[in-house]
Amino acid sequence: MPMTLSRRSIPMIKHSDYVILEKSDGARYLMLVLERGVLLIDRRMNFYPVEPDPNILLPTTEPTRQDRTLLDGELTLNLITQQWEYLVYDTISINGDTSVAQLDYRQRLINAENFITFPRCFSSNASGSLRIRVKDFYEKNQIKDLFKKITKDDSGEYVYANGDRKDGPICNHNDGCIFAPVQMEYQIKTCHALLKWKPPHLNSVDFQLLLDQTGNGTIKTTIAYQGDHRPVKLREVMFPRAQKAEWAKNFQRVNGSIVECTYDRRAGEWRYIREREDKDRPNYSSTVIDTLESTAEEVLREELIAVLMSSPVNPELSKQKRLIYSEDRPDDLFSNLHEDYLCTLPISTVPVPVPMNPHHRGRSR
């Protein structure tokens, strides 16, 4: 799991071997490929069979099904094709060979391309099944190209779109980017070198929501973070009256649930974004502190561009060509070239997002 990027992390990224990925607003799943079928595994270790069978084969002359292949990725909705896609962002095992997890990050993605996605391009049996693709990744000196592909749609949602892929366009909701260390093997638990960056107003924490009935039809709302052994109450939060009334109607279901909140710097209060039905425990205290630090520092993307564009050019660049995808959006907060902010709005002026179905939109990484 990635840590929230802070200003003290920037020199490490600048002087170390890193690649950058867009942070899709999807639901994280492991994909387990067995000889008898393919399963998606969520963070609660629930198993979901993929139907129809994607029929993932080895790149051999004789069609042979893969077995004991394990991938890490996320399920996203392609906004152009309106089809669900599984985007691979790491490789743990290929046909039972777990040594791939010890390769550097570029090689792990190349293995996913060579052994998973590329052979399916020529397989007639793959037609009509879940599409499996490898996520785009960028070298540090290509960060401007990445940010030019992240724009806002008419509803104010961030969207990543790359129309230059030979296997068709990728277009999905976005909530930031991931900085992945190259010379590090696959990490099972939280990795302090794996970093995520979001626009400041999207920095969020998953809390446990605790409700107390006050006796007059209203409720008291308290948020809690994860301690060493159990959730620890942080404090009472003054959520909007209409929201509390809705929770009061569904007291038994909502009490103890996990909710995603962002900190409103102007109001000095936490604001509710949505319920996280895909999670059963809140974030740890370290995540709360890191998120507040990132919110206070307000690292903007032009700062990342200025620092990383001056990083040494790595000769081992991605094989995929990436052209600039941009268009004029007068209602956007970015310039026409999508390089700089035209203005920075206070968090409290940003409308509260409509709660989303976590099975469709996960913000899982």
From TrEMBL:
- Tell me which UniProt keywords the record has, alphabetically: GTP-binding, mRNA capping, mRNA processing, Nucleotide-binding, Nucleotidyltransferase, Nucleus, Transferase
User: What is this enzyme's EC?
Assistant: 2.7.7.50
**What molecular function does GO assign, one term?**
ATP binding
Q: Does the keyword Nucleus belong to this entry? A: yes
From the Swiss-Prot or TrEMBL record, state where the protein is found: Nucleus
* Enzyme class of the recorded protein, top EC level: transferase
Q: Which InterPro entries match?
A: mRNA_cap_enzyme_adenylation, mRNA_cap_enzyme_C, mRNA_Capping_Enz/RNA_Phosphat, NA-bd_OB-fold
List the SUPFAM superfamilies.
Answer: DNA ligase/mRNA capping enzyme, catalytic domain, Nucleic acid-binding proteins
**Domain of life from the UniProt record:** Eukaryota
GO CC terms for this protein?
A: nucleus
Q: Where is the mRNA capping enzyme adenylation domain?
A: 2-198
Its UniProt entry gives the catalysed reaction(s) as: a 5'-end diphospho-ribonucleoside in mRNA + GTP + H(+) = a 5'-end (5'-triphosphoguanosine)-ribonucleoside in mRNA + diphosphate
Domain (mRNA capping enzyme C-terminal) spans 202-305
- Alphabetical GO biological process terms: 7-methylguanosine mRNA capping
Name of the protein: mRNA guanylyltransferase
Q: Which organism is it from?
A: Rhodosorus marinus
